[in-house]
Design a protein that fits this description.
Radius of gyration: 27 Å
Helix content: 25-40%
Distance between the termini: 72 Å
Oligomer: single chain
Number of helices: 10
Strand content: 15-25%
Structural class: alpha+beta
Amino acid sequence: MAAELVRGQNHPLSQMRLEIRVAAGKPVVAAATLGDERGRIHGVEWVAHPGTPTLPGLEVSKQAAADHRLAVDLGAMPEAVHRVSVLLALPLGADGPTRFGAVAAPFVAVTGLDGTEVASYTITGLDAESAVVALELYRRQGAWKVRAVGQGYAGGLAELLTDQGLPQAAHLAGGINEAVARGLARSVATPPPRTADGDRTRQTTTPGIGPEGSGATTPGASGAVGPQPSTSPYGAQGAVAPPSGYPADPAATQPAAPATGGPIDYSHPRRQTGAPPSPAPTVPPAPPGQAAQPVAGDATGWSMEERLYNQVWGMFEDLARTMAAYRSAVDFADSRMEKELDQALSDPRSRIGGQGDAAREAAQAKHAQLVDQARAALDRDLAQLAAESEVVEPALPLAFAGWDNPVWHGYRVPMEIPMALRLGDLHLPESPDLRIPMLVRLPLERGLWIDSGGGESLDGSFADSHELRRLALDTAVAHAARLLAVYPVGEFAVHVIDPAGSAAQALVPLVHTGVLAAPPAVGAAGVADVLARLTQRVDLVQMAVRGGAADALPPGLDTAEQLLIVNDFPHGFDDRAVTQLRYLADEGPSVGVHLMMVADREDAAGYGPLLDPLWRSLMRLTPLPDDHLADPWVGHAWTYEPSSVPPGSQVLQRVLTEVATARTKYR
């Protein structure tokens, strides 16, 4: 029976290979330190953190998350290590809380590889602290125990590490925060919660972090995050395989038989958002022993649009977690085979005769069995998700649909702002044919950076730099056209800065249809004029909002959302212009001014680290497939492909013409 610890209480550990599960309710940083008999850290190489997630016998998550799983192998710890301290900290620079007193009490559990809970601890009594030593595993007279600590530090990681005797504590704490910031910059943000009244307009939508997911993963491959430790959310109906190899009971991973007389929930509980549901499609009962047939919109939500949005995000999370379970199972099989081979061959007598060969064959057979079972579970889940994708994709509304979707051929300017916008597709290498739409909430909460830099593509080929710049501009135009198309008439305006005029050919669809707010700005004077006007707009709106006088804005001020496309940065930009761009990137989204940069980061290297915050504040997108984005649950490297217009299609031209015509009628 699992022990529920209180502060200061300890409990013996009977296993060497363990998982430490963390559920915090809000994104936190998970780290661990290795200490000697007195608990002192000998150097930065004794600290596992997102920047250095792996140490001998220890692996932590690579990014801040609401849930974590830390892998611990006490048998692999160096002899000098007598204490392993698990640390939690709130990420600096994020929009989340700055003290643990403002969040729910973090929950930490020590489990075996099979998920059996050994001991748990709820960290209560925290207030102003922003970092805490949750618990420690310590060695005493050759045996390992776990102790609930709960020691908090208002000074954050720097104070915590200093207290553990690390001389470079402040420097390391800064490095950890930098690594976390990089992870947050590449992570696709979780969907924010829906407002209480269901209003999704620009005035009431605010940034946020959606309800934290639950699922089954391990950090074997990528420092995964995991579920609420007290329960297993997948139970009998889960779409994700168990985290640690294969289940003792194969029936544990089979879908549950559907209840008769009601809708079938074939997805995991993360699909259930808690919002009052509108009538969901009727799902016929599945035949005995078969999975339920997927139905588009079979998720909770106020409207069909919201149900589809939640369903797409549920598919995204399902694929992330089931792939984490598969990769963890393969890692477990690999490590088990390696350990069995080491044990069999460590005895010189086993090398004589056929004993060594027999041991090797037995270990390889067990390895193949484990991998085959994991692959079978993965294939089952992939087949279910593929079937779901086949019914969801054709049913997606305009803003969620790809350019090749027939819904665009009957395009009419919408009357309401949609919930989200599709920027492309995401997939993983183990399932390249299963594409998940990449949806971001509207209005945009981060600017976009279309990377025009050169480099090796995923297939090993190199693209010409001029070709990459052209593709990047085409991608930017397609994204801008989609934004113009999904907003009501007069609710979205696009500006372009093209200092050298090099984007003239790519901008033809926007210029010739007349959907731009003004001709593209060229030269130093044009750059300065556009940046000055948008900067002034941000200042005016901020002052009006802060002063409670939003109705006192100048009569000529355009209240529509503004998008600024910047081409070929930093060419043609002086220091003042660079400062204004950084200001727009930081302050613009909150008042309806958004940035889309088409640039190569290497070209801006001359500015040094001053521009690093600018790049991190933008979501990097690529014109060619690239595995640079991470999911917010597990941290897999997902391959991103932009949503491009099919070759030879006139859909983009027709849509922009319709937008321009609607504007003429509106005026």
